[in-house]
């Protein structure tokens, strides 16, 4: 079955998706929409698709089977609800929003509709990450440490806290999700954020430039996440998981896995294009009608969003937040 796909939003992330979908035999991008007409035309011409005048026009169940929603998190409106009610399967880029009440209502509507759905937590599709998850099953974790350091997105909206949610919500969310996927659920978070240097580069920025988040987990394990979005000389993204008789290290954004215990000391690097794997899985799920193939549904993405929004709430209210 050829899956007819529409795109709403054709910015940076959408370009990755479009490029990988070109290499998937049963994926057929037929229509695109973006508020930036020039960008929409360029994207459409690259795949032989048509340009629609509005998102509502694109969401036509007679014309498409599935939609990739790649607009920024502040600009989603009711796109997901409309797609679900029209029976259109959907892939929604992370993060899924900035208001838990709104995204939880969206999740319920999507669930009730029965459409195939996925959220953009692509690192779950790495073989290294899945191997770490399998190794940790049944093992007792006592501590998790994670970090993500690097620079920021060039768009002004990304540097506006009310539109992006900040670096943690928009980018470090991948490390939050990796922790959830391989180690279990968060129970409590306590966060401290700073804004001491970003204004020298962007005077109008309202996001935090660094953060430190402490957390506990349902298993009883404790951990921390540190992050910076103004680190031009050192970039890193990793998750370390400690047990009394093992150590697991997912480095290079999860693409390298190290496992140490009494019987082994191994390090391996993934050869998988995780965007390709993620999108192939979604397309095949739509073609077959089987949701279970997808490693991160919309509802799963909501759970990850809840952790990062709780951290923002913790900073604002200066207290621990129980999830």
Automatic annotation (TrEMBL):
Query: Which Pfam families did the record assign?
Result: GFO_IDH_MocA, GFO_IDH_MocA_C3
Matching entries from InterPro entries are given as: Gfo/Idh/MocA-like_OxRdtase_N, Gfo/Idh/MocA_Oxidoreductase, GFO_IDH_MocA-like_dom, NAD(P)-bd_dom_sf
Q: Which residues form the signal peptide?
A: none
Which intervals hold domain Gfo/Idh/MocA-like oxidoreductase N-terminal?
Answer: 3-116
Span-the-membrane segments of this chain are none
Per the database record, which ranges form the GFO/IDH/MocA-like oxidoreductase domain?
A: 141-244
Q: Which domain of life is it from?
A: Bacteria
Spell out the protein name for this chain. Dehydrogenase
| Source taxonomy | Bacteria, Bacillati, Bacillota, Bacilli, Bacillales
């Amino acid at each position: 079955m050829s899956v007819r796909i529409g795109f709403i939003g054709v910015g940076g992330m959408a370009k990755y998706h479009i490029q990988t979908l070109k290499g998937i035999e049963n994926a057929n991008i037929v229509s695109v929409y973006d508020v930036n007409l020039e960008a929409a035309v360029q994207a459409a011409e690259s795949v032989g698709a048509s340009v629609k005048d509005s998102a509502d026009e694109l969401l036509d169940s007679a014309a498409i089977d599935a939609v990739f929603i790649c607009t920024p998190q502040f600009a989603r409106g009711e796109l997901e609800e409309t797609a679900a009610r029209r029976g259109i399967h959907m892939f929604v880029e992370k993060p899924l929003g900035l208001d838990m009440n709104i995204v939880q209502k969206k999740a319920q509507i999507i669930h009730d509709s029965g459409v195939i759905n996925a959220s953009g937590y692509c690192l779950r599709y790495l073989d290294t990450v899945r191997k770490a998850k399998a190794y940790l099953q049944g093992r007792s974790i006592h501590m998790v440490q994670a970090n993500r350091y690097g620079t920021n997105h060039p768009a002004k909206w990304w540097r506006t806290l009310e539109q992006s949610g900040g670096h943690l919500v928009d980018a470090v969310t991948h490390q939050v999700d990796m922790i959830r996927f391989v180690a279990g659920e968060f129970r409590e978070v306590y966060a401290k954020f700073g804004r001491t240097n970003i204004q020298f580069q962007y005077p109008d920025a309202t996001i935090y430039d660094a953060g430190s988040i402490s957390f506990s987990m349902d298993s009883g394990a404790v951990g921390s996440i540190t992050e910076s979005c103004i680190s031009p000389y050192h970039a890193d993204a990793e998750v370390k998981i400690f047990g009394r008789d093992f150590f697991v290290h997912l480095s290079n954004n999860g693409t390298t896995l190290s496992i140490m215990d009494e019987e082994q000391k191994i390090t391996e690097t993934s050869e998988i294009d995780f965007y390709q794997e993620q999108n192939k899985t979604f397309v095949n799920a739509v073609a077959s009608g089987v949701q279970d193939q997808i490693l991160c549904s919309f509802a799963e993405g909501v759970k990850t969003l809840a952790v990062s929004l709780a951290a923002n709430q913790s900073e604002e209210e200066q207290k621990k937040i129980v999830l």
